[in-house]
Amino acid sequence: MFVVKHSCDEPLCANPLHLELGTQSENVQETYDRGGRKPPIGYAPRKLTADKVREIRSKEGLTNVAIAAEYGISPSMVGRIRNGHSWVDI
Fold first, then answer.
1. Which residue blocks in 1-90 are alpha helix, DSSP H?
2. Which range of residues forms the domain containing residue 33?
């Protein structure tokens, strides 16, 4: 299911240039990345399993964009997984 994300973090904003579709998981993580409140401990997107995260971390030589397209997640999420900022317990 998709939600409307606000790139400016203003809930009342309706500027089409500030709005995009994404998942709630992406919305929460991106808000945190921009200095918003921190996601709850253990928060992780539900699209990925531990095995998929291990696969992502093992894919050397591929860009975050290519991996994101393969797994249906954002390139920034791939970067967070690769850098250990998401799914740190795996």
1. 24-33, 50-58, 64-71, 75-82
2. 3-82
